[in-house]
Amino acid sequence: MRNRPAGNLIGAAFLACASLAGAHSASAGEPWQKLDPLFRIRHVPAAPDAPGHFASPLSGYRPDTLLSGIARFRGGPSDLRLLGASVGARAGSLFTVRATRASLERLLDDPRLVEFEMSRPLERASVVSPAGDLSPAGELPPGSPPLYPGDIPRGRGVLLGFVDSGIDFLHPDFRDSLGATRLVGLWDQNGAGPPPSGWDFGTGWSREALLAAPPEERDFRGHGTHVAGIAAGSPWTSPHHRVFSGVAPLADLAMVRTTYFADFPTQSVNIVNGVKYLFDLAASRGEDAVVNLSIGSQWGPHDGSTLTERMLSALTGPGRILVVSAGNDGARRLHAPLGGGLAEVQSRRFVVPPYQPLFGADNDALIMEAWSFSPEGAQLTLVGPSGATFGPVAPGEQRDFTSPEGDVSIDNMAGRGRLPDSTAGAGQSWALISISDRTSASHAPAAGTWELRMGGNSFRPPLYNLWIDTAGFTTISPMPNFGAEADSFHTLAVPGTCDSCICVGSYVAEVEWYGAGGAVDGYARHDLPATPGALSVFSSLGPRPGDPLGRPDFVAPGQAIVSALSRDAFFDPWRIYEDGAHVALEGTSMAAPYAAGAAALTLEVRPHLPPARVRAALRRASAGTGASGSVPNAGWGFGLLSAASVPAAVGDTLFHPGDSPLRLTHAANPARDRVEFMILARVPMEGGTLEVFTVEGRRVWKLRFGRLDPGITRANWNPGAGDPSAPAGIYFARLVAGGGAATDRVVFFP
To answer: How far apart are alpha carbons 515 and 574 in whole angstroms?
Structure first.
């Protein structure tokens, strides 16, 4: 039996496993309707004799319990503080907040709160775990020692930041030629204080404090130390005289030791806070910044619309770049389509492998999400291994069932996206299916083949994407999966699907390294499959739903990666490199920092580039291989990234031979809240207009220009915030300038 931490089980239970008997729906006026959808199945009757009246989903917590999340709030930080909330990062109308249960209930009652996404779990994206911390079944494949040429930029003047498990502050890979630390900032979000400037929790160290005395910081996981070494480790020479170096060894470094290994209820929120801290630190130093997130999990619609992803995207901008791992779920069979055919009733089977339930109740669970672009939704029925049926559950209805095969809850939301008045997942239907032992230890989810049936209330049911949630939501091990009916596409992990981030998959560069005593070691000696030159079998696949070429952007070396070993982490001895100070690991966790280092090189060559231009440059520095087939594709993106190709690729990413001298595009598709148009002019142009029209041809906005300079000119259309309001829909933009014209199609959600 796998030993799982109690904290994750508690988190999984409080987020996903509570349900009640029968069926219910609730008024959109209830304050808790603004809460994260994963809390919707926690709504319990206020009293047995009061059907239709529901207690707060937070009623199970003490009034002083501290909770965290992201609020979309039509007010300012001072308004949130008056309600008793502690405010962290802000991006427009989005705020990270911490609040007691009592304060959060006051916030939910406030009409200025539109929605509240509770903090969610995120996992590290390395395949291997330290010895004694077993990985889920199926997560075996492996890594590649990077050797970088010396004729490329080195990251000077750029801050490389990491939100991870911490860093071995004393490791020589993070010191300069004089022996001084290269870290310019360190924030331990788990610390007791004093916090960094502008924050009210954790312990922070400035550059001056780090130079004055070594902090008492430990990286017991070793993940953050390894990742930082790949992106920016100082050069070192192995006993076999092989020179290793991080991609950007002259970049400044900063680390946020986050809570995602320790504190389930604050994970995603504190990662957002960490990104904000790093970008602010770089701004205070007058530097551009690249932040690496080697994390990810399977939850949400995978289209960039969760508040976590929207806030991360909003924090990026010129000289503020975010690089995220694609995830390691490519071979775990966690995704499958359902529907889209002609039959009125269609189904998809999934398998719960034999497993040992944990002792007691409310600690074994399987959580599945279903997302469709259809606003109507469809009737859903779950069938257990014995043939017992749970349902049907109509669109807009929640039903809960108690059974020896598992306590089943189906919340079938349709026609309004994730929440009322929410732009996240707008126009989509969403359903949450939970199977757990909530009411009794004897009701652990039954092993065997289950079936989810859709339809029976319409002639042609819609197409759903199904995902089995990871990161503590599903607590059964080995992991349930869709078996032979799985479709490994659309398995990119959140937040790698956010609009403005750069998403990186993994490639097998090498399979061997020099182990203890100088003997050659590698995957073959430990029966781990890895084919040099191939896409890593674990690397998650794209595309994003509705975005055929959107993700991953490219792949980078992610197997047998030799990098810094934390003195406080313990790995299997065969992984330790011959010098005892480095270790060979694998995962998209290892591929992302290679790309983060390459992004730092990009900003050294051309400072202050916006994310779209950095992405374009790195895509141009990538190429197909004999194994990749034609690129771009859902596995390799635009091909294998070469850091050595970055300087040439940065040159001119705006125009290519044969391009029109006038182009029009926008930053995010679909665009939310506002549309940021980018006008690309090859030569100076006098005068011009930019207009936006409905599909019927009615003009809703017009902007005049006196002159367009070569390069990028930005223009913001802000419906409802200075410009006339506009409903969600498809719009067409037309630009006329210098005797030329350009058009663009925009999908807009207010």
So the answer is: 6
Q: State yes or no: pLDDT of 167 exceeds 70.
A: yes
Whole-number Å distance between alpha carbons of 734 and 435: 51
Verify that 376 and 398 share a domain, yes or no: yes
Q: How far apart are CA 287 and CA 397, in angstroms?
A: 51
Identify the domain boundary among 466, 485, 504: 485
In this predicted model, what pLDDT tens digit does every residue of 436-458 receive, in sequence order?
998 899 999 999 999 999 986 65
pLDDT for 129 equals 38
CATH number at residue 721: 2.60.40.10
Which residue range is the domain that position 432 belongs to? 335-485
- Counting the structural domains of the chain, the total is 4
Chain centroid to CA 31: how far? Answer: 28
The identity of residue 638, as a single letter, is: F
Closest residue by Cα to residue 498 from 211, 722, 291: 291
What distance in Å separates the CA atoms of residue 326 and residue 542, rounded to the nearest whole number? 9
Residue 151: Cβ within 10 Å count: 7
Letter string b/e over residues 300-330, b meaning 16 or more CB atoms within 10 A of that residue's CB: bbbbbbbbbbbbbbbbbebbbbbbbbbbbbb
Q: Are residues 481 and 498 in the same domain?
A: no
Is residue 292 within 8 A of residue 227, CB to CB? The reply is yes
Tokens of 348: 């998809």
Helix 223-232 to helix 588-605 angle (10° resolution) is 40
Residues 310, 246 within the same domain: yes
- Does the residue 521 lie in any domain? yes
Q: Which sign does the torsion angle of CA 420, 466, 495, 595 carry? A: negative
Confidence at residue 652, expressed as pLDDT on a 0 to 100 scale: 54
Cα distance between residue 573 and residue 706, in whole Å:
67
Distance CA 95, CA 605 (A): 34
- Mean pLDDT computed over every residue of the chain: 84
Digit-coded pLDDT (tens) for 132-164? 332 222 222 223 334 344 446 899 999 999 999
Q: For residues 319 and 183, state if they share a domain.
A: yes
Question: Taking CA 325 as the corner, what is the angle to CA 323 and CA 327, rounded to the nearest 5 degrees?
Answer: 160
CA 701 to chain centre: 34
Question: Could you tell me the CATH number of the domain that includes residue 392?
Answer: 2.60.120.1290
Map residue 444 onto helix, strand or coil: coil
Domain boundary among 485, 512, 536: 485
Determine the length of the chain.
750
Same domain, 525 and 550: yes
User: 672 with 734, same domain?
Assistant: yes
Which residues contact residue 658 at a Cβ distance below 8 angstroms, ignoring those fewer than 6 apart?
Answer: none
Q: Do residue 166 and residue 249 come from a single domain?
A: yes
- Judged by DSSP in three states, 280 sits in helix
Q: Tell me the per-residue pLDDT of 487-546, one tens digit each, with 9 for 90 and over.
A: 989 999 999 999 999 999 999 988 999 998 889 999 999 988 899 999 999 999 999 887
Query: Which CA distances in Å does 37 have to 34, 419, 435?
Result: 8, 7, 16
Cα–Cα distance, 366 to 359 (Å, whole number): 16
**Inside any domain, residue 167:** yes
